[in-house]
Write a structure and sequence with these properties.
Elements lengths: L2 E4 L6 E4 L5 E4 L10 E3 L6 E6 L7 E5 L12 E6 L5 E6 L3 E6 L7 E2 L3 E2 L7 E3 L7 E5 L4 E6 L11 E6 L5 E6 L5 E6 L4 E5 L5 E5 L6 E6 L5 E6 L5 E5 L5 E5 L8 E3 L5 E4 L7 E4 L3 E2 L1
Antiparallel strand pairs: 1-2, 2-3, 3-4, 5-6, 7-8, 8-9, 9-10, 9-11, 12-13, 13-14, 14-15, 16-17, 17-18, 18-19, 20-21, 21-22, 22-23, 24-25, 25-26, 26-27
Length: 284
Amino acid sequence: IRTIAWNPTGHLIATGSADRSIRIWNPEKPQVKNSTELKAHTGGVERVAWNPVKEAELASVSSDGTSSVPLGGEGLTIAWSGDGSMVLAGRKDDTLIPISLPPDSAPSPLTPLPQSLQTNQVIFNPVGPPTTLLLTEGDGSVKVASYPPDEHADTLSTLHTLHAHTSACISLALSPTGRYVAVGGSDALISLWDTTEWICKRTLAAMQGGVKMVGFSWDGSFIVGGSDEGNGLDIAHVETGEYVYKIETQAPAPCVAWHPTKYWLAYSGDPGGLKIVGAAGGSM
């Protein structure tokens, strides 16, 4: 499993795998026979993401160079706008492909946005039309840019630059409250940034390898990161930085995703594939 994501209501969870498949699970019925397999790609699935305003619309990006449209290169990451009107797909050559999703017509790719630095993940402002875009960069920084891009230059205008890590930034997450941005780095650190003043409030250092995914609990109180190195998932309290619980795993767990309304955490890595832990949680 390379990627996992809950739908907006938490009734479904999607996984994308190196075997080119996407599978949709019902957490209440964890047997494979109750899941739905989607075969939309001819290469490994790098990222899945649900439309934030629709319960059953999923976007994916693959190493076969496709998403909703051909990308012209291997896909790496994807993000929805807060209003569900578009997705932004990122290629492994650090080019971003905006894709417009008109309600009554086919997806339409817009002008590509090549980036000068390694770009592993992007996220939009979470509510309403896209106005702000956050991008991880290979020099250890995070760029906060205005969106849409300048129509004359086809470039993103930088609003702020967060000098977050000493090596490449890999992952991003915005807290549900909008108060913090979490940045995961290849230096095995998670930094927490205040979104009002754009200053680093604290750094979490329990991880043993690069932070492949990072996520906040539904209320923004807790945070966890996933990595390809080291066993276990360390959950920290956002306001204090104190580690409050460790989920023991038999193998590294690179993919993590919190349920949108409950203290349930889904993760990959252990034998058997996807697991969900928490109140009334279990394994899948």
